[in-house]
Write a structure and sequence with these properties.
Blueprint (H helix, E strand, L loop, with lengths): L3 H4 L12 H4 L4 H7 L6 E4 L6 H11 L3 E6 L5 H9 L8 E6 L6 H13 L3 E6 L3 H4 L2 H4 L3 E4 L5 H8 L8 H11 L3 H14 L5 H9 L10 H15 L3 H13 L4 H16 L5 H16 L4 H14 L5 H16 L14 H5 L30
Parallel strand pairs: 1-4, 1-5, 2-3, 3-4
Helix pairs in contact: 9-10, 10-11, 11-12, 13-14, 14-17, 15-16, 15-17, 16-17
Length: 379
């Protein structure tokens, strides 16, 4: 039987849930669909936010031939077949390339001239930052649309379309478990319905613990593994961290995804306790880029053991988070006059830069934030 997520997949924007900043009234993708404007773009967002569905709705609306490939398994020959296929009338060809970040540089170079010439219009989907994963020449010919995680209300609305009956408690639990991923919620719901007569919080939990849910690199287990990996390094447990690393590599996880999380971890969790951790993590990332699998697994293991054994200090990260909250909440507070740049006589006359001292003990924060302490050194 066709999976539940496919059976209830929206066919048009009226049925589509979420991403109002892209498909709401007057927003860019809705306008493109309404005006039948065809162009190449990338949909960047976490799993289960509607990237594939949105691509299909767009292709149908502009009356294009739609070809769908996964960059995990596709190659140059697959692209040749699509380009060489006899055109269906004057209909444009749209290639939807899922996980475009998994296409290597040579494959992207091969794809580039077809996008440039208009033989193919490309819609890429990715969970990774396109700036890191897509070559500049191709990226310059694509618009980037960022999809947001679905809200609890969005997930609840999608679940309401399935026809399955469940208590409000079960739905609330499922919405929370999904954490913005509609596909995960639908998969859990469908599997529970197949295993049990009733859908309750208890049967949902039983399904979650069972082996019925197989590993999905874009689904729940992907995030469970990376979470366990990070938490093991944070707890200074190299044995556990190495084990979860091996699990991810063996399952086919992108090694750059792992290395990128290690670079983040080096500043977020280790920070000033051992500043060289960031140097090591960046070196590991570079090694992964240049060497690739399977040998780069050795570099990853080297870095993981080092990071796990480092002292931990989140004070710089915590300071940044607190300062970010104030920046968002309080807006553009006036910069003290003595800290302002004074490139012209007029600005100097207005007091810009006056009485500035390089090594002053004066509080340089804006007036409303004087004496605020963001950074608190670990004792």
């Amino acid at each position: 039987m066709e999976p539940l997520a496919n059976r209830i997949r929206p066919q048009n924007l009226d049925e589509y849930v979420g991403q109002d900043h892209l498909v709401g009234t007057g927003k860019p993708l809705r306008l493109a669909i309404e005006q039948k404007h065809i162009f190449s773009f990338i949909l960047w967002g976490t799993p289960g936010t509607g990237k594939t569905t949105l691509a299909r709705i767009y292709a149908n609306a502009v009356n294009a031939e739609f070809f769908e490939l996964s960059a995990v398994s596709a190659g140059k020959d697959d692209i040749r077949k699509i380009v060489g296929k006899t055109a269906d009338g004057n209909r444009p060809k749209i290639l939807f390339l899922d996980e475009i970040h998994r296409f290597n540089k040579a494959q992207q170079d091969f794809l580039l001239p077809f996008v440039e010439s208009g033989e193919l219009f490309l819609i890429g989907a990715t969970t990774e930052n396109p700036s890191f994963e897509v070559i500049p020449a191709l990226l310059s010919r694509l618009r980037i649309f960022v999809l947001k995680e679905l809200s609890g209300e969005n997930i609840a609305k999608i679940l309401g379309r399935t026809g399955f009956e469940m208590s409000s408690e079960a739905q609330d639990w499922l919405v929370t478990m999904a954490d913005g991923d509609a596909r995960q919620a639908l998969t859990m719901l469908e599997n529970t319905a197949q295993l049990y007569d009733d859908i309750t919080v208890e049967t949902l939990k039983e399904t979650l613990q069972s082996k019925f849910l197989r590993y999905d690199k874009k689904g729940e287990e992907h995030f469970n593994l990376i979470s366990a990996f990070i938490k093991s390094m944070r707890a200074s447990q190299p044995n556990a961290a190495i084990y979860y690393l091996a699990r991810m590599v063996e399952s086919g996880e992108d090694p750059k995804f792992i290395a990128r999380r290690m670079v983040i971890f080096a500043s977020e969790d280790i920070g000033i306790a051992q500043p060289t951790a960031l140097v090591v993590a960046n070196a590991v990332f570079r090694a992964v880029e240049t060497i690739g699998l399977p040998e780069c697994g050795i570099n990853l293991a080297h870095g993981v053991v080092y990071l796990a054994n480092c002292a931990k200090d989140r004070s710089a990260y915590d300071a940044y988070k607190t300062a970010l909250e104030d920046a968002r909440k309080m807006g553009n507070l006036p910069i003290p006059l003595n800290l302002r740049n004074a490139p012209t006589k007029l600005l100097k006359d207005l007091g810009y830069g006056e009485n500035y001292e390089k090594y002053s003990d004066e509080d340089f924060l804006p007036e409303k934030l004087k004496k605020k302490k963001y950074f608190r050194a670990k004792k």
